[in-house]
Amino acid sequence: MMPALPSSLEPALEARDLSKVFHDARRGPVHAVEALSFQVGPGQVVGLLGGNGAGKTTTLSMLLGLLLPSGGVARVLGIDMARDRHRALARMNFSSPYVDLPHRLSARENLSVYARLYDVPKPGQVIARLAGDLDLEAVLDRPTGRLSAGQKTRVALARALLNDPAVLLLDEPTASLDPDTGDWVRGYLQEWQRRTGAAILLASHNMGEVERLCDDVVILKGGRLAEHGTPAELRARWGRERLEDVFLDVARGQGQSRPTRPEGPGEPHPPAEPPEGEGL
Ligand SMILES: Nc1ncnc2c1ncn2[C@@H]1O[C@H](COP(=O)(O)OP(=O)(O)OP(=O)(O)O)[C@@H](O)[C@H]1O
């Protein structure tokens, strides 16, 4: 048996040889995620990128223990989420603008319910602090269903930070925000992460956001890992100045067909395969 690593060396989050096959009546077996391995180290922020249908949500759902993998393992803080999800839940959290909070409850009531579920000590104080941080004081007592998309996103983020998670999974945290509010939320997340040392896995289509927040980037294509590295490594490898162009090259399987400089900077890189069916 392999000796256990001291907990400080353990990845905060790990996908190892992770796969998910959906059995769809119309499409037959759908290989949403295939043999996917990556890690998020303690205190690291990793971006999970990929086009529509590339497998990001399926991956996040397995890491949250909401979907059982067809193969491989999803671990959070060393805990196998398919077996022992309940042991990790108190130390992790998740936020997505696509998951609605009950509409009739006020923002404060929603946050109070979740604070109770997470057994947050002094919940009133924690909610007041988060409402101050996220500029929600004026809307705390309004029904959540009547808030703007930007206000709902900030309430959802407050909900995700209630238990001071050591591991935070974020699905498109700024998707519905105007550029100014989006920028503000990114700045807040960056400051929060530096202060708490939490590990973050961030699924995003916003390359500026990924370049600003992420130490490392995983790009999925058709459920498989197509690229992995720091934003600087990926730019150098693909001879691109912007991560957005790296993403497009990976998506289109173009490799270095359009280098940004004539000599083609960076290491040569085998072009990614053209997309098969759905996926990036
Ligand atoms: N419950 C399901 N049953 C059948 N197929 C599914 C199911 N959930 C997802 N899929 C398929 O699995 C693949 C990956 O989907 P997934 O939602 O993980 O992609 P994504 O990267 O999150 O996409 P997006 O950026 O559009 O949200 C797609 O082909 C999708 O249609």
Automatic annotation (TrEMBL):
Superkingdom of this protein's organism: Bacteria
Record-level Gene Ontology MF annotations: ATP binding; ATP hydrolysis activity
Keyword Transmembrane annotated: no
Keywords: ATP-binding, Nodulation, Nucleotide-binding, Transport
Domain ABC transporter: 13-247
Annotated region described as Disordered, given as residue ranges: 249-280
A Pfam family hit: ABC_tran
Family: Belongs to the ABC transporter superfamily.
Name of the protein in question: ABC transporter
